[in-house]
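Hello K.,

You asked for the raw outputs rather than the summary table, so here they are, unedited. I folded two proteins back to back in the same session to keep the settings identical. This is the first:
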Amino acid sequence: MNNLNTFEVENNFKYNFNNKYKKEVQNLLIHHNDIFNQKYEELNDSWKSEIDHQIGRYIIQMKIFETIKNENIQGEILEFGTWQGQNLIFLVNLRNEILNDDYKVTGIDCFKGLPYEEDGWKEGQFKNTSKKKVLNNLKSKINNIKNVEVVEGYFIDKHVYEYTQQIENVSYVYFDSDLKTSTLESLNLVKKFFEKQKKIFIGFDDWGCKNYTLLSAFGKFIHTFSNISFKIIGKTDYTIFFEVINHNLT
C-alpha cells in the first residue's frame, strides 16, 4: 500500500487548481467543466470545493485502480447511485486506462430520484436522469464501454438483489446512495464480499455533507464485523475512501 500513503487521511487536493490531471478530468465532466477555465481568484469556496471533489476523487480512484492492478485483485467494479453517470464515466475511463475490460463495471440506480426526505435531502431530488441518459453520457465521453452495465431499480428490488448476489468477487465499490437507509441497503448487498475476500476498496460520495447521515449508516454497518479493518486512504471535501482488509484471511 505504499503508493497510497500520501493519500491517507489528509486532503491533498483542496483548491488545487493546477493539478496535472485537471484537463483530463475536465474533458470527462458532463457538468460545470467551464469552471476549470476560470481564474482561481474568481471562484467562490463552493466552486473550489467542486474542483477538489472532481479532481480529488478521480486521482484517489486512479491510485486505487493502480493498486488493484499491482496486487492483482480480481473482481467487478460496482457503483450504487449513478444519477447521470459522472463517476461511472470516471470508473470506466480508469478501468480502460489502468486495468482492462475484463473488469466489469456496473452502475445501479432507480433513476426516479430519492425515495424520501432525510437530513436535508429532498424526496425526488436527482430525478432528472434516466438509464438512457446515463448510457448516452457514457458514449459521449468513453470510446470503449465494453463490459459496462447500467441496472435500473431500487436497492431493495428483487432483481437488484439477484444481480448483486450472482457476482463472484468485487475489487471496488462506490456508494452514492445519499440516504442512511439506502446506504445500509447497498452495503448489505455487498456484505458477503467483506466476509469472503482478503482485500477490497470502497468509496462514499457526500460523506459529511448532510449531518453525517452516511457516517451513521457506515458505523452501524461495520459494527456487524469482527477482525475486518477499514482504513481511510483518501478523502476530498465530499468523498472518503477505505481499504477493507479481512484479517481472518491474511
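The second followed immediately with the same parameters:
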Amino acid sequence: MTNQKGSFKFQVSSFKPRAKSQEPKLGSLPKCTTIFPYERHLECRHPSMLKRILVIVIVIVVVLCGLGVARYRDCHQRGEAFRSRVNSIKHAAELRLPIGATKEDVVHFFADVNFPLHFDEVGASGTIYTTGCSPFGCAKDSAMIQIQVAVDSKGTVQSKPLVRGGYTDCI
C-alpha cells in the first residue's frame, strides 16, 4: 500500500457504534476481544468447558483425599500395632524378669520375644527394627524396640528391665 512516491499510506477505520440489534442479550456469552491473540480470559470460555474443568478438579481432589485417608488408616494401624507390641513386651519383661531372675530366665525371655541377646559389662540387651507410623518430622516409618536388663557377672537380674520403643529417623 504505497503511493507512487514511495511513501506509505495508512488507512484509518472510523469508529462505528453498534446497532441496538447487535447488543449482547442478558445471559448470552460475552464478546471476547483481546489485544493479543494468545491472551484468553476465563470468562470468555464456553460455560460447558468451565463445567468440565470444575468436574475434573473436583474428581482430582476427591481421589487425592481418598488416597490420603487410606494412607492415614494404614499408618494408624501400623502405629497401633507398634505401640501394642512395645507395651506387651514391657509387661512380659516386668513379669518374667524380676530382680533376682537367673541368666537362663533372661535367655529364655529374649528367645520367646524373638530379640537378639547381647551380654556386656552393663547387662543384657537386644534391639529389633520394625515399622510403625512415625509422627510429623520423621522421614520414614522405621522404628526400633530395645530391651535392656542390668545383670551381674553371673547373669542374675539386678534391676527392673527397661523396654523402649521409638522412631529412628526423627529430627
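Residues 61-167 form one domain.

Happy to rerun anything if the numbers look odd on your end.

Regards,
P.
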